Predict the structure.
Amino acid sequence: MELVEDVYRLTARFPESERFGVTSQMRRAAVSIPSNIAEGSARGTKKEYARFLNISRGSLAELETLLTVSKQLGLSTEVAPLKQKARRLFPLLAGLSMRATSSER
């Protein structure tokens, strides 16, 4: 959730011309991460939970790519802290997914 807040604060400083471009895409990807975790946990099965955790990891990868794009396009020079947060989340999500799938067996 903290990453979502950070993305919203960062993209609020992007040019208005990016409102329906990179800004929108970054915000959707960021919100998708915790949303998929929540949806997966509410599904009631470990298999579904693991599936939604993997979807969440995909959104995290998308967000990391968009952070790089925003830097390369000159939209922001402040992406490094967000990329670090994203990189710390990857193994956490992988661990949750492994735990969910290994406990099914």
In short: The chain is about 75% helix and 0% strand. The mean pLDDT is 93.
